[in-house]
């Protein structure tokens, strides 16, 4: 890829005639589009009849776009297998948890583990890679599209066989599995691996081990499919490979990106939920640590389908999104989609150009993005996001555990986003880290809502603490084994010993009218909670009201040069948010966190490191404007204007670049 910031869109030229394509290119030039993504739904165009593959249309299209300096991310068309692959072949189709077999239509209707599908997918991927892999305008590859977006774990016969093989590889003997899962419960004991069912609907709930392990099996199989496609492409192309994913989908993103070259995601958060948008940027920046991420899809105004729609963006917000993304480590900001679809289930979806070939309500905002991209490009390319000192661990494996054990409809992603939002509001530069990430350089680490803390993670976190870090553990963390069973040595397993506490009880705080106090601030407590009896630890948060009155819900314990802080319950309501922010500020100060800004709520500051300067990219995200305190004299990184220290105002959806020269 060239050293530039990309501004792009998903494009489906196979759906339009030559006149419309020429019109599209004209508008792309006007809007500043320099990259398009093509091909992910075009299997029936490339291989209309089985065995007759023709990539000519896309070869010509890539050439035509390149003549206008528009580069291409080429996709494999595997999310939409054609009718000849599925008709009269129910054994190839996806089967849901109710045992219902999908029919042809929509997308993701086939089982991606089916051997015949894999064979045909490999062939068409190879032919596309051979045809366009060496074209200089093909700057990247996207595998498939949104793995496991509309579907989750498949229950077909192919998956059943693979499931049994996966279990045997994991547990080696049926006796070991029976012991790990405790299968004598409810007479669920198995004599052989091929007796173990898939978690299809039953009269009541499945064994927790069975349900969680099946999710992890599904995670691994879809990642193997991505690995297989990437391996084929690499034989014919040196362009980097990605997949566009989100935290909503039923995948383990950390595993998915392990063998890919860069990470990308799609996001359709409304302006009112801008924290969720920032959350994705802060997470995807860390899936491929040394490679900028791409926003592969976002709407120029609103998302919609035949059955739903989101609120259109206010004017100016799209530019704020784009500047924030580029500042937070994004190399590309791309729309879904370029020209509105005239048919299908997403006809109403927001686009840059309408189905009748005219600019849409979002077009002028797209042009604003292009102006901003040009304005900040040299600054972004000559700097990189500053190392954060505050981190939150994110885990799709934890998401699987909570899907099995949601209690009252708990949703892992929503819990983490709400927790993360408090750190944003407090003005801290932060990273969301996948579970296997390196902890070097961080000072304060949060590990919330992770039922199973693996031995590897615990060892790395303990080393982090011994080196001087503060590790805040919980809530809902550590209470389950890797097999999704309860510990029998202590409520939180080895965490009890590390934190020097005895976890006396675990139970749901909701409905108990329990109140916790920390540093003089009181708040209601919620969620499934852990109640502690300190040993060598110090009780710092006490329950002042409720059935465990007088017991600790927060403790701290010095380990090496740092501390382990146990957060056994989630403070809630407005007072709970303030309690958590007090907790954050207290331990951040103790950990000597300095990468923080005094900024009003709704505005963010992204610190970046240049060769001879620190750059702050300031963006107002809520439309209300705001201010940030400039700690010492600086200059405007765009205009060169002098900026004195003190309060610096920013208008609705405005962005500013502030440069602090090194002494």
Automatic annotation (TrEMBL):
Which Pfam families does the record cross-reference, listed alphabetically? Answer: Glyco_hydro_42, Glyco_hydro_42M
Residues annotated to bind Zn(2+):
111, 154, 156, 159
Q: Which reaction does it catalyse?
A: Hydrolysis of terminal non-reducing beta-D-galactose residues in beta-D-galactosides
| InterPro entries (alphabetical) | Beta_galactosidase_Trimer, Class_I_gatase-like, GH, Glyco_hydro_42, Glyco_hydro_42_N
Q: What is its EC number?
A: 3.2.1.23
Instruction: Write down the top EC class of this protein.
Output: hydrolase
GO molecular-function terms, A-Z: beta-galactosidase activity; metal ion binding
Does the keyword Hydrolase belong to this entry?
yes
Q: Where is the active site?
A: 146 (proton donor), 297 (nucleophile)
Report any one BP term from Gene Ontology. Answer: carbohydrate metabolic process
Tell whether Membrane is among the UniProt keywords. Answer: no
**Residues covered by the Beta-galactosidase trimerisation domain:** 388-592
Which family does the record assign?
A: Belongs to the glycosyl hydrolase 42 family.
What is the recorded name of this protein?
Beta-galactosidase
Which organism encodes this protein? Metabacillus litoralis
Where is the organism placed in the taxonomic lineage, from the top? Bacteria, Bacillati, Bacillota, Bacilli, Bacillales
